[in-house]
Amino acid sequence: AQSRYASLRELPATAACGTRVAMHMNAGLMADLPSLAGSGAEGVGLFRTELQFLLRSRVPRRGELAALYSRVLDSAKGKRVVFRTLDIGSDKVLPYMKPQDEPNPAMGWRAIRVGLDKPGVMRMQLQALIRAAAGRPLSVMFPFVAQMSEFEAARRVLLNEIERERRAGHVLPTSTEIGAMLETPSLAFAPRSFFELTDFVSIGGNDLKQFFFAADRENERVRRRYDTLDVSFLDFIGTIADRCAETNTPLSFCGEDAGRPIEALCLVAMGLRTLSMRPASIGPVKHLIRKVNLAELRSVIDEAREAGALTVRPAVMEWLARQPM
Ligand code: PEP
Ligand code: MG
């Protein structure tokens, strides 16, 4: 399948209507980096840093992490890599962390909540990232931000660490981008000042969908119960895109749906212009985007919604079947 899309590797994901969509890849291991060239991704839109913590029997040391992040940046050869800070708790439990006996871990003490309450590990990780990015751009995003105040606090920790490095006379990153993952519905309703403050927003669709429909993403019984193309969810994605557009805040989508061609198409129709997905999905998603007129798809979605459809999937499939492929 990879070879089928090889001819698209160097071509942009530009739709028939002229809309350009940036294609990035998700990664989490050094071994993923060769796919950056192989897939034609423009960068790493989500580097899940927790895998390095999950693979060890003890907390990794700052030096080890800095060396690893530096190798990741070397392999990216100047392409942007967005490092997501440690996202533990819920489904990701560190072997050396005291188990938290929580009745509902997905909504419990996880991700940025742990980072803010016990800042030692988060600070160490941020220091490692700053060192690794010395003399080059640094992009960091914080997972599972539910409120603006959490983002402000985490951002402040990062800026303080950069200031500390500066005072110590170390070489600093040439630029620093600090973003937030939108994975809880509440953040979509944060004040305008949040969207002005953050350098970018990345929708973590796996968690966002879980909390939007209150359906556990780990529970086989309910995880496929609600459709990403449900009118209510697509409307919500459209609201987020509109809020980001008001403040010119760059927006991306990095959940699994970005790598599902039909879902990706609908996300783009709702206003997304950057998608990040597993490398193998880039070819199929790009292939489809290049074939269609997104403005026309948006009308199909709007018409289905106005006609009272619950999900736009049948209308979209019917429209797609009529497209010259
Ligand atoms: C998400 O929630 O969509 C996401 C990208 O993060 P993870 O799947 O690692 O929770
Ligand atoms: Mg998530």
Automatic annotation (TrEMBL):
It comes from the Bacteria. It is found in: Cytoplasm. Belongs to the PEP-utilizing enzyme family. This is phosphoenolpyruvate--protein phosphotransferase. The chain holds residues 446 to 770 of 770 of the full protein.
